[in-house]
């Protein structure tokens, strides 16, 4: 496997000239599922695959042909939902008042299993307008 497409400067080896299609793999998912992945000295990505020596199409992100046309595209594995909150002043003057981010809540959602995978929440202390609104 290669780290990019033909013409990419990172690709030293791993792509044959007669290659007709390219498969993008989800290496993060592959490694999370305990597949052993190595990078050779010349930049080729190597794995022995599963117990039968294959990588399941479950790990394919997309397949494109030589001309860049999409032949297959997987749905998202995960997505992140944000609800960024700002400190707003009800008496503010639009031209001079600055809104500051005060909270960054987010969740990572597993698309396939329809469940929340991780929750993130950061509270940020406002520096310019330290008086918080009641809403």
Annotation field: number of helices? 1
Distance between the termini: 53 Å
Largest sheet: 4 strands, antiparallel
Number of strands: 9
Mean pLDDT metric: 79
Runs in which pLDDT lies below 50 for 5 or more consecutive residues are: none
**What would you call the structural class?**
mainly beta
Q: Which descriptor suits the 3D outline?
A: elongated
Question: Roughly how much helix do the residues carry, as a percent range?
Answer: under 10%
Strand percentage: 35-45%
Radius of gyration, whole Å: 23 Å
Q: Give the helices and strands as they follow along the chain.
A: EHEEEEEEEE
Query: How many structural domains are formed by the residues?
Result: 2
Please sum up the structure shown.
The chain has 135 residues and is mainly beta.
Describe the protein in words.
There is one protein chain. The protein is mainly beta. The chain folds into two domains: 21-73, no CATH class; 78-123, no CATH class. Helices cover 4% and strands 36% of the residues. It has one helix at 27-32, and strands at residues 21-25, 37-39, 45-47, 60-65, 70-73, 78-82, 85-87, 100-110, 115-123. Strands 6, 7, 8 and 9 form a four-stranded antiparallel sheet that branches. Strand 8 and strand 9 form a beta hairpin. The chain is elongated and about 65 Å long. The protein starts with 20 loop residues before the first strand and ends in a 12-residue tail after the last strand.
